[in-house]
Design brief:
The complex is a heterodimer. Chain A is mainly beta. Helices cover about 0% and strands about 50% of the residues of chain A. In chain A, the strands form two sheets. In chain A, strands 2, 4, 5, 6, 9, 10 and 11 form a seven-stranded mixed beta sheet that branches. In chain A, a hairpin with an 8-residue loop joins β9 and β10. By secondary structure, chain B is mainly β. In chain B, β4 and β5 form a beta hairpin. Classes of the chains: A mainly beta, B mainly beta. Chains A and B meet through β5, β6, β9 and β10 of A and β5 and β10 of B.
Chain lengths: ~110, ~110
């Protein structure tokens, strides 16, 4: 069984740029969620995708957007990067959108200068 | 607003010194309480799900318990490799899958 994978591991961008982060869900999981984790904080929910549709969104502005593909992999896009976007971005997958037990990938560390 | 609060923020133990971490929640209609372990710079690793008051689950030196208002993660005779941040989470409202606490940063000294 393959776990959740994310790429890249680390990324450095400058303010105003755009970034795309990628996630492959765990085998058999059809629902993907993205979280932002600032230093010293717990993960904060950004949005969730189920069957290629956004299925829920946290308190994040529209410049945070996403996609889910037919193979259930997913992308997180962030436009007009701000310094406060520096964080660990986590992808989690679950077997069913109504099932809250989520399995996380290793994360992408984004630094915005 | 759904909230998950963890205490203490940080805990330093000697190897073999047992202790407990606390998680209190105000999530209405709780549909599971989740514990994760997170090592620095890595993603959270799933530990336990608890669904009803009185439920207990164990894994090696860890035991999680649940009451109507809070959960405890008991660590018995910890070892240095148990050092990590322990996160507690509950389901959020609507389509929010999980609401996390800030975590307890545990250090076990040999």
């Amino acid at each position: 069984e393959t776990g959740v994978t994310q790429s890249p591991t680390h990324l450095i961008k400058t303010r105003g740029q755009q970034v795309t982060l990628r996630c492959s869900s765990q085998s058999g999981h059809n629902t993907v969620s993205w979280y932002q984790q600032a230093l010293g904080q717990g993960p904060q929910f950004i949005f969730q995708y189920y069957r290629e549709e956004e299925n829920g969104r946290g308190n994040f502005p529209p410049r945070f957007s996403g996609l889910q593909f037919p193979n259930y992999s997913s992308e997180l896009n962030v436009n007009a990067l701000e310094l406060d976007d520096s964080a660990l971005y986590l992808c989690a997958s679950t077997a069913n959108r109504a099932y809250n037990e989520q399995f996380f990938g290793p994360g992408t560390r984004l630094t915005v200068l | 607003e759904d909230q998950v609060t963890q205490s203490p923020e940080a805990l330093r133990l000697q190897e073999g010194e047992s202790s407990s971490l606390n998680c209190s929640y105000t999530v209405s209609g709780l549909r599971g309480l989740f514990w994760y372990r997170q090592d620095p710079g890595k993603g959270p690793e799933f530990l336990f799900t608890l669904y009803s008051a009185g439920e207990e689950k164990e894994k090696e030196r860890l035991k999680a318990t649940l009451t109507k208002k809070e959960s405890f993660l008991h660590i018995t005779a910890p070892k240095p490799e148990d050092s990590a941040t322990y996160l507690c989470a509950g389901p959020g409202r609507g389509n929010t899958p999980l609401v996390f606490g800030k975590g307890t940063r545990l250090s076990v000294i040999a």
